[in-house]
TrEMBL record:
Protein name: N-acetyltransferase domain-containing protein
Annotated N-acetyltransferase domain residues: 10-159
Pfam family of the protein (one): Acetyltransf_3
InterPro entries from the UniProt entry: Acyl_CoA_acyltransferase (IPR016181), GNAT_dom (IPR000182), N-acetyltransferase (IPR051531)
Organism of this sequence: Hyphodiscus hymeniophilus
Entry's Gene Ontology molecular function annotations: acyltransferase activity, transferring groups other than amino-acyl groups
SUPFAM superfamilies, per the entry: Acyl-CoA N-acyltransferases (Nat) (SSF55729)
Domain of life, source organism: Eukaryota
């Protein structure tokens, strides 16, 4: 097989698509332990999956399915019911934020505690820093719940440095709107110079302006699309 983007001792990373990975994605996102927002049905999972993948308007996102390689140390079955390598998680980049391009990962609960997330994430970074189309990226940012010891450990081992706390940054489902804090960790491209980092920080600012413009345009489109319906309702 040649379409794996990267290989680690026990895992493959493969570009994530609806066609190949919806089933695995659904298995991942229908577990309360692994996600902040459970997607019960395949349709819900698909709608959510589409928001996480790159689009022509948002081409800077990378998403990889984490697959079991058929090596002895891995638990069987190595393949799913369609005969494809079992998907045990996902990793990649998520979105631009004021702190930079966010990165992360998520593993199927059945595979926790075996070092897979760390192995996959280090593999992803190796792959990412080598991508021609990502050469301008000088840093990634990981946002982690302070209590998430395993995740903090993974990022530290991957060379991340804790850079600060974002206060009241997100609210978990079921938290009645109470917002929690997260720590943000920065992971530098190996060998990056001060000038390159300065340029990158400028690029983040530009990206955030672009993102806000796109969001505004989307909102305006929604208002324009709503107007005829509202007019119809009044007539
Ligand atoms: C966080 C998560 C990815 C960890 O997956 P995993 O495959 O079990 O992680 P690993 O087995 O690679 O363990 C990572 C490290 O944390 C350590 N660790 C794992 N569980 C731990 C715990 N409860 N307490 C302390 N250390 C722990 C491991 O020993 C390992 O350290 P090491 O590399 O020094 O040996 C997984 O629990 C998950 O998907 N959680 C939900 C989603 C999430 O939190 N994503 C991260 C958002 S930033």
């Amino acid at each position: 097989m040649t379409d794996y983007a990267h290989e680690t001792p026990r895992l493959w990373l493969q570009k994530m698509t609806v066609e190949d990975h919806l089933q695995g994605f659904h298995q991942l996102w229908n577990k309360e332990e692994a996600t902040q927002s459970v997607k019960e049905t395949v349709e819900d999972a698909k709608a959510w999956m589409l928001t996480t993948l790159p689009t022509p308007e948002d081409p800077d996102i990378d998403k990889y399915a984490i697959l079991l390689r058929p090596v002895e140390e891995n638990p069987q079955p190595w393949v799913d019911e369609r005969g494809r390598p079992t998907m045990i998680g996902m990793t990649g980049t998520n979105r631009f934020s004021d702190e930079g391009m966010e990165t992360g990962y998520c593993m199927h609960v059945a595979y926790w505690g075996r070092g897979y997330a760390g192995e996959a994430f280090r593999g992803f970074l190796e792959l990412f820093w080598g991508l021609e189309e990502r050469r301008r990226f000088m840093q990634l940012v990981a946002k982690v719940d302070e209590g998430n010891v395993a995740s903090s450990r993974i990022i530290a081992r991957a060379g991340g440095v804790k850079a600060g706390i974002l206060k009241e940054w997100y609210s978990r489902p079921g938290s009645n709107g109470v917002k929690g804090d997260v720590a943000f960790w920065l992971i530098d491209r190996p060998g990056v110079s001060e000038d390159e980092m300065k340029e990158w920080k400028e690029e983040i600012k530009k990206q955030m302006v672009r993102k806000k413009e796109l969001e505004k345009a989307k909102e305006e489109r929604k208002i324009v699309e709503k107007q005829p319906a509202e007019r119809l309702g009044k007539e």
